[in-house]
Design a protein that fits this description.
Elements: H1 10-21, E1 28-32, H2 39-51, H3 67-73, E2 80-83, H4 94-98, H5 109-114, E3 123-127, H6 135-146, E4 152-158, H7 166-169, E5 173-176, H8 182-188, H9 205-211, H10 219-226, H11 228-241, H12 248-260, H13 266-290, H14 296-314, H15 319-333
Parallel strand pairs: 1-4, 1-5, 2-3, 3-4
Helix pairs in contact: 2-3, 11-13, 12-13, 12-15, 13-14, 14-15
Amino acid sequence: MQWQDLLGHDQQQGWFRNALTNGRLASSFLFVGPEGIGKRAFARLLAKSLLCRSTMANELTFCGVCEDCVQVDASTHPDLVQVFKPAEKAVIPVDLLIGEREKRMREGLCYDVSLKPFSGRRKVAILDDADFLNTEGANCLLKTLEEPPADSLFILIGTSLQRQLPTIRSRCQAILFRPLSQSDLESLLPRLPIPGNEDDACLSPESAAAVAPQAEGSLTKAWVIADEELQQFRGKLHGYLGSQRLPIGELAKEWSGLVDAAGKESRAKRDRMKILFQLAADFYRRDSIQDGQMDSEMATRCWNRCLEAIEQVERNANQASLIESLTADLAVLSSR
C-alpha cells in the first residue's frame, strides 16, 4: 500500500509531512476516529516512512521495495513494535506492556521500545485498541510516554478521546481522523477484500455504490450493510424494534441464532454480536425517529443502551446473559 492509496486523510498527511520537514515531530500520538476509516493503515504507512532507509529521514515517503519496507509489511521489522488486545481478553494485559511478572521491564512494549534501534534510525511502537487500556495498563505506559527513549515514536489508536484515560490524553498529541466521504468509500470498497472472506472477494462497484450512502464513512459498516444474511435480518429487526410491544423472546432467539452461526471461535461470535447490536443502535439513532415510530427521548435511551451493550461485548460479557438483558431493557425503555 502506498500513501496515494490511502484516501480521505490528506490533512493528516500534510501535518506529518510538515512536521518531518521542519524537524518538529513529537514522540507520542493518539490517533482517534470511528472504526473502519483508515487509522491503522495510516499508522503503518507512517511507520514505513520513518523506517525506510532508502529515503530521506525528513520526508514522508518510502521506497516500498527495500528490506525495511518488506519487513514492515510483514510485521517482522525489528524496530516496529506492535501490541493489540488479544481476542479473548477484555483489556490489554499488562504483560504485553511491561513483561510477565518474573520478567518485568525485561520484555514487553516498553522494554522493546527502549532498546537501541536496530536500523540506526528510530523505534516505532503502535498500540492498537487503546480504548481497552485500563488504569493499571495506562500507568505502565506513563514513564515511557513522559520520558520517551531517544529516536522513538509512539502511536496509540482508539475510537474517541472520551474513551481514553486522562493520563494518556495528557501525554499524547491527538490526531483526529474523520469518516470517509461517500465517494472515497465507493472507490475503496471494490479494491479492498471483505474481512473474513476466504477468497479475498471485494464488493462489486454496483454494491459499493449501493451501501456507501448508508455506511456513515466507515468501511466496517459498509461491509456489514452489504452482508446478505444481515441485510435480510435488518428488515426483520426493524420490525421487532418498531413494534408497539417488543417481542423479547423472538428477538433474543434471532440474535442468539445469528451469533452462533458465526462459528465456534469466540472472537467471531463477539464480532457478530457487536454488529447485531450496532444495527439496533442505528435503528434507534436514525430510522425510528425518521419513521415516527418513537420520540427522540425514547430513541436516545434505547440507543445508549445498545452502545452500552456493545461495550459489554468488548469486555467479554456472557453471550446469553447479555442478549437476555439487552432485549429486556429495550422492551422497558421503548414501552409507550
